[in-house]
Amino acid sequence: MQYNMQDNYNMLIKRVLDTLDKTDLQKIKKQLAKIKENTICTGVGGSKVVSDYASSILNSKNNISSISCEPQEINFLNLKPYQNVLTCSYSGTNYGVEMSFSNTLNKYLLSHNKVSNVNNLTYYSSYQDEHSFISLAATLMPMSILLAYYLDNDFQIIKEILNQTKTYHVEPNNVFEIISASYPKAAETFLESTMTESGTAIPILHGKYGYCHGRSTIAKDNKHSLILMNQNTTLDNLLLTELPQYFKQIIEIKSRYQDPIIDDYYRTYQAMLLTKEIAKINHKDLSEVDYLPIVKKLYKFKGSM
What we know:
Radius of gyration: 19 Å
Low-confidence stretches: none
Number of helices: 10
Number of strands: 9
Helix content: 25-40%
Order of helices and strands: HHEHEEHEEHHEHEEHEHH
Distance between the termini: 36 Å
Structural class: alpha/beta
Strand content: 5-15%
């Protein structure tokens, strides 16, 4: 059965709650708690969002140093400071997983499937796999597993966040500038990846303080739209005061939780709701993307980089 974007959004919360119910959260908690040394997290596409989130959780919950990168980058890193690699992949079978595990580090796989010779952190679902070009549940499900670990498997906050649905007003535009949160940044990774991979719009991602150092120049002769990750800081307030005259529209994704890990999950969910409205206003479908023929050829690429 083919699902369109609205179908997949209608199923999103059900899929997340189902995977929390069907997954052995206690087993995953024990496995993640054993990661006590420096760790590299990897992922690509929607799984890069999960990788970024996993890295921030290991930094905060496990009190270790953890970084997030795309799989090919691991081949160029100095691996001596690291003991583990945690790879995020819904399928667990793509070339990125193979690249991430082509080393002597302790190997962990956060995935919907199991593979051999690694520590499998496997999450389950009783629903049919999500059929969508852009990962929605395939991104939010593993993020929910990670947040459940962070919250010692009390996921009432997750249910609370998923009940905070919002319809964003979006004006048509081909370019959206994004001013990111200070930390962590899974939500921004989702926005940038989704807009680019779906062809919905052209995203331009700015670091919040980096925007203070000349990046505002791009708005001088253009009327782009702006998405601001508003954490209610002094800089956020200044930007909201000074920038409206330079942009067609400013859309705020406002922080709601003091805990930055919980808040990043909330902002990622809100980013998902926002990208649905951007897709609709620009007459796109995130699940059924009209992509270049080269996409499938590149997706299957295996070789040196």
